[in-house]
Write a structure and sequence with these properties.
The chain is built from 16 helices and 18 strands. The protein is an alpha/beta fold and about 425 residues long.
Length: about 425
């Protein structure tokens, strides 16, 4: 009788030979001496980037462990969350970006939810980001509808190029005609074409021919068919609410209703919001969905905030828990700090959340560009030890083992998928 691993390897080989990116393995074996049964495990393709990051790491036990995993088969995991899909290399919130996240092992994928002029829900990171994430400015009849038209840069007077185009400026039918592009704009642009050519040099336009924009309902259908879970973020409106009669509460409810209509179980949905009132609304009015509602904690914007001083947290972690919040999601840097020996360790914020019984999700790995010079905003609490690409895995290791996060958003989910599989999360 073949062992569990032998069966996995045979099926893995079958999947690879026939070019199956996502391959479901269903194995049942009653042999008590065999290894634990795996059911509905879906293969993932992690590519070369995780090993590139491992190679950059300083020598040590963690690097050795991660290197030893390079030949294993990788599987989809809920610990890996696709942030706007796979936005490092694909236009965010497009079908192509979502599919790349799914293929690279993200067990949960995000649609940021906002609305069009005719109050249809669509996937965009911000209500007013069409000028940097789509080709709207290149379509004169739609560019004319933008809240703020394109204005070229005026270098002599120190004025940057600008524009603002919102989903609420156009109808759903008009939204569907747009192409997604890599998020970015050139502030020194004198023309629309120059303005749209603003992709960061550590990303790529190789997959940015014409990204397929998606409605919220279409994202649900795609994720359901792929068998992944969903984490929609209700975006704060950039227009005054109520909008054409739609209140904030109706907006929050409409998002949940589209999951109910699609027959998605609440256990497969993690609704998110930076607005605590939205989370409280779901807890009070959609209790099954509210149990997995994620409070995206933006208290770091408060000038008095200190992740290592719990008295600066208002409301307190315990109060949030008492109000029914189960999951909290701060940015990476809030959860970690450096000890006296420059080791990455959990922050007091992380300890307080854990002590209060809150589950923790964090964001966003692979969004900082090169880590050779401190890592920028997402690594600000550990800048002194962020001097190589491999620090991403050192940070993941602390988040997993010491902080105990239940998931990590990433712009390139394969990195998190690799770690989670290697560490058997």
């Amino acid at each position: 009788m073949k062992t569990f691993k032998q069966k996995i390897n045979l099926l893995s080989a079958f999947c690879l030979v026939f070019g199956l990116v996502a391959c479901t393995l269903e194995i049942n074996d009653d042999d008590p001496q065999d290894e634990p049964v795996a059911t509905n495990k879906v293969m993932a393709q992690v590519g070369v980037r995780p090993l590139f990051l491992v190679d950059q790491m300083q020598d040590g036990t963690l690097k050795n462990k991660l290197q030893q995993c390079k030949s294993q088969t990788f599987y989809r995991t809920d610990w890996s969350i696709g942030h706007r899909g796979a936005a490092m290399q694909f236009p965010e919130h497009t079908q192509e970006s979502y599919q790349a996240a799914i293929d690279s092992g993200a067990g949960i994928v995000e649609c940021d939810v906002t609305f069009t002029q005719d109050k249809e829900l669509v996937c965009r990171h911000s209500q007013c980001d069409l000028h940097t994430t789509t080709n709207i400015l290149a379509i004169p009849e739609l560019a004319a509808k933008c809240s703020t038209p394109f204005t070229p840069a005026d270098p002599e007077n120190g004025i940057s190029a600008s524009a603002q185009c919102c989903t609420s400026d156009i109808t759903l039918a008009e939204f569907r005609t747009l192409c997604g592009k890599m998020d970015g704009a050139n502030p020194n642009a004198l023309t629309v074409d120059e303005y749209m050519d603003g992709t960061a040099n550590w990303r790529t336009d190789a997959h940015s021919t014409c990204g397929t924009l998606m409605t919220h309902k279409e994202s649900i259908s795609l994720f359901k068919e792929a068998g992944v879970k969903m984490t929609p973020e209700l975006k704060s409106p950039s227009v005054q609410m109520p909008f054409d009669g739609m209140t904030q509460e109706e907006y929050a409810q409409k998002m949940i209703d589209e999951y109910v209509e699609a027959g998605i179980p609440a256990s497969d949905v993690y609704p998110q919001s930076f607005n605590l009132a939205d989370v409280q609304y779901w807890i009070a009015n959609n209790s099954e969905f509210g149990q997995q509602a994620v409070y995206l904690d933006d208290r770091y914007n408060d000038s008095s905030f200190d992740p290592n001083d719990t008295s600066s947290l208002t409301p307190s972690m315990q109060l949030l828990k008492n109000q029914g919040v189960e999951i909290i999601a701060p940015p990476l840097w809030v959860l970690v700090t450096l000890d006296n020996d420059n080791n990455i360790v959990p922050s007091e914020y992380a300890k307080a959340a854990k002590s209060a019984g809150l589950k923790i999700i964090t964001w966003t790995l692979e969004r900082s560009g090169l880590l050779t010079q401190g890592g920028g905003w997402y690594y600000q609490s550990i800048t002194d030890v962020t001097d190589n690409e491999g620090v991403a895995f050192e940070l993941l290791d602390v988040l997993a083992k010491d902080v105990g996060v239940i998931g990590v958003f990433s712009d390139w989910p394969a990195t998190v998928t690799y770690y989670a599989n290697c560490m058997d999360i």
